[in-house]
Design a protein that fits this description.
- With 622 residues, the protein is an alpha/beta fold.
- The protein has a domain of 210 residues: FAD/NAD(P)-binding domain.
- Helices cover 28% and strands 17% of the residues.
- The protein is built from 17 helices and 23 strands.
- The strands form 7 sheets. Strands 1, 2, 10, 11, 12, 13 and 23 form a 7-stranded mixed beta sheet that branches. Strands 7-17-18-19-16-22 form a 6-stranded antiparallel beta sheet.
- α15 packs across α16.
- It is globular.
- Bound molecules: flavin-adenine dinucleotide.
- The site of flavin-adenine dinucleotide has 42 residues, from α1, β11, α8 and α17.
- The site of flavin-adenine dinucleotide (FAD) has 42 residues, from α1, β11, α8 and α17.
Length: 622
């Protein structure tokens, strides 16, 4: 549809943001031919762009405004003013279009905590069917099963006919991938089980969102959107920005009746007869609420935005997975990413293999990951409960639940990952691509430890009434002392891991006789906890998993949406994306974003099922 033809047109549902969650909604809602749906997406349709579809090019997308909003955080007080780049996907598919393709899973306890926070219907058993519905898992070939030790997966727990392809590469296994599960055994970690069982510890090679048919990225635009694309009841406009929600304030509650949007340099209004659904993500869904008059009255007044609903919780409760990375020098003869950097003929060969077969190194994403509990990583003797200090940004109930998970021997406190490549965290404020594509001569291996349940809470708020002004993002990284201590301990543990064979056999010994492995140049040695704390502050990075800014919680406990994801105090308005997570969960969160959107689609369909019957559409009585 021509953008101009949209003006004053009406739809049953308007979805603001055609990202990960937005395209699930679009696809599922238009299964009902009676629903007329409009999706408005700020970015472009990048299907077919090899930079997106080739798994091996993802690290080059960050900071490129063609694909990435390229947000920056506020200077972080607890990190001597450090600024972090926060990439977010801009285009059909949103962040699923640019992410690392890792297909992970939350724990049973993570979701039961959601339920216990006042969200009946959102516990483990409630959400599991949606995980099944999302996934189309491809069994590994025999060489893959042997090389990557994939036997921990229980196929019976997995979806095999869903929208998102999950698989492992079929060739070009790296020494790091083959060694990783063996390292788990050598460290005495628990034997890995399928994360779908609800608990999952140890190191393993996880699934990635790659369609093995041609080795391409499987994401919201190539799956959910493709399934719905030809439907007459779906309209998708790209390169168009939702500016704010339109209201009817004549009833007892303000009702969302459409949106104001900018398209082709003009501003138009489009009507929604049933609902407006915000799926603009953790940064921009709260931005749109505030621009539309829902938020803290003082903040809205500062920006001359008329108050529609007072709710100071909008944009609060921001949570992330902070992580630290260490890198070591590899021994000669073990290929790393730097070999591709330094030898253009190797890169050309990899590209050629990918073009001809859809395989080779360019078809591989990161698989080497795992989860560890507190006691597997930290040094004995720390009084963790003494570090659980109250914080005005962290509700006491959340603090208590965080402590329960921290002390639970079955729960992951850390996600540990590895890649055969160096990393330069000092460039965290310059760009994520620059950090990975470092220019330090030599070959390296990196390991990271990320906190699954951070204690620090931040916020996202508008800086002006203009949708084009990026909001103020303040994760308040490491503002809680627990996070600093947990990361500091993990730095010591990583040093122990790399000193243990088989991994130790691939890394150079330090030349100073210390018995340590040789760090990548520029990395400061540390031997005391005080030094490790400082290093954690210098090297802490984003894991790209912000959540929680439009939390599904009781309103008096910081909630923005209820258990049907309706925005408190309004009618005809829901938020469906990662911003509704009340508390962050273990692992890479995309699978849960898909699951939340699948469940939301069911809830919305159910809301109007009665209406269809009442209208006699199903041939039933009035
Ligand atoms: C670099 C990176 C790596 C990651 N790696 C992984 C990984 O390997 N595995 C994993 O599980 N998770 C990963 N994640 C996290 C995961 O991808 C996201 O949490 C998830 O995709 C978020 O989905 P969403 O629907 O909440 O938001 P998004 O998918 O970001 O969708 C929001 C959409 O709204 C659009 N939008 C915003 N504002 C407006 C507006 N005003 N008007 C119109 N459109 C608008 C945006 O352009 C975007 O398309 C990663 C994320 C990033 C950024």
């Amino acid at each position: 549809m021509a953008h101009s033809a949209l003006s004053n047109k009406s739809f049953d549902f308007i979805i603001a943001g055609g990202g990960t969650a937005g395209l699930v909604l679009a696809s599922r809602l238009t299964e009902n031919p009676d629903f007329n749906v409009l999706v408005i997406e700020a970015g472009s349709d990048r299907r077919g762009d090899p930079m997106i579809s080739t798994p091996g090019t993802f690290l080059q997308l960050y900071g490129n405004k063609k694909y990435d909003w390229d947000f920056k955080t506020e200077p972080q007080k607890s990190e001597n003013g450090a600024v972090h780049c926060w990439p977010r996907g801009k285009g059909l598919g949103g962040s699923s279009m640019i992410n690392f393709l890792m297909y992970s899973h939350c724990s049973k306890s993570d979701l039961n905590i959601w339920r216990d926070l006042g969200n009946p219907g959102w516990g483990w058993t409630d959400i599991i069917p949606y995980f099944q519905r999302i996934e189309r898992m491809h069994l590994p070939s025999d060489p893959t099963r042997t090389a990557l030790s994939t036997e921990y997966i229980q196929p019976s727990l997995r979806g095999t006919s869903g929208m998102i392809h999950t698989s492992w590469q079929s060739d070009a296994f790296s020494w790091a991938q083959e060694t990783w599960p063996k390292q788990s055994k050598a460290m005495g970690y628990p034997t890995s089980t399928d994360p779908r069982t609800g608990t999952s510890l140890g190191l393993f090679n996880q699934l990635t969102c790659v369609d093995p048919k041609d080795g391409t990225r499987s994401y919201a635009a190539t799956s959910y959107f493709v399934a719905a694309e030809g439907r007459k009841n779906l309209t998708v406009v790209t390169e168009s920005v939702v500016k704010k929600i339109l209201w009817d304030t004549s009833g007892s509650k303000p009702r969302a009746i459409g949106v104001e949007m900018e398209t082709n340099s003009s501003t138009i209004q489009v009507q929604a007869t049933k609902e407006v659904l915000l799926s603009a993500g953790t940064i921009q869904s709260p931005q749109l609420l505030e621009l539309s008059g829902i938020g803290d009255p003082t903040l809205l007044q500062t920006h001359d935005i008329p108050l529609v609903v007072s709710n100071p919780s909008v944009g609060e409760n921001l949570q992330e997975h902070p992580m630290v990375v260490l890198s070591w020098t590899t021994k000669p003869g073990h290929p790393t990413a730097e070999h591709l950097r330094d030898d253009p003929s190797l890169l050309a060969q990899a590209m050629d293999t990918y073009a001809k077969t859809g395989g080779g190194p360019m078809a591989a994403a990161v698989t080497t990951t795992g989860f560890l509990d507190l006691h597997s990583v930290t040094r004995p003797g720390t009084d963790w409960s003494a570090l659980a200090t109250p914080d005005t940004h962290l509700p006491q109930r959340q603090l208590d639940l965080l402590m329960t998970q921290l002390e639970d021997k079955k729960e992951a406190v850390y996600q540990v990952s590895a890649i055969p490549s160096g990393n330069t965290p000092s460039l965290r404020g310059i760009g994520n691509s620059a950090m990975f594509f470092h220019s330090v001569p030599g070959n390296y291996f990196s390991m990271s430890c990320g906190l699954m349940h951070a204690f620090s809470r931040g916020s996202v708020h508008i800086k002006s009434s203009n949708v084009h002004d990026y909001p103020e993002i303040d994760p308040r990284y490491l503002s809680h002392p627990m996070d600093v201590e947990l990361l500091a301990h993990s730095l010591f543990h990583m040093k122990e891991v790399v000193k243990t064979p088989p991994l130790a056999d691939f890394l150079k010994d330090a030349s100073d006789g210390s018995g340590e492995k040789e760090f990548m140049p520029g990395l400061k040695p540390f031997s005391t906890l005080a030094e490790a704390r400082e290093l954690a502050k210098e090297r802490q990075l984003t894991m790209y998993h912000p959540t929680g800014t439009c939390a599904m919680l009781p309103r008096e406990e910081g909630g923005v949406v209820d258990t049907e994801l309706r925005v408190y105090g309004t009618e005809g308005l829901r938020v469906v994306d990662a911003s509704v997570f009340p508390m962050n969960v273990q692992g890479n969160i995309m699978s849960l974003v898909y699951a939340v959107a699948e469940k939301a689609s069911d809830v919305i369909k159910e809301t109007y099922a009665g209406e269809r019957k009442a209208n006699g559409v199903d041939g039933t009585s009035h």
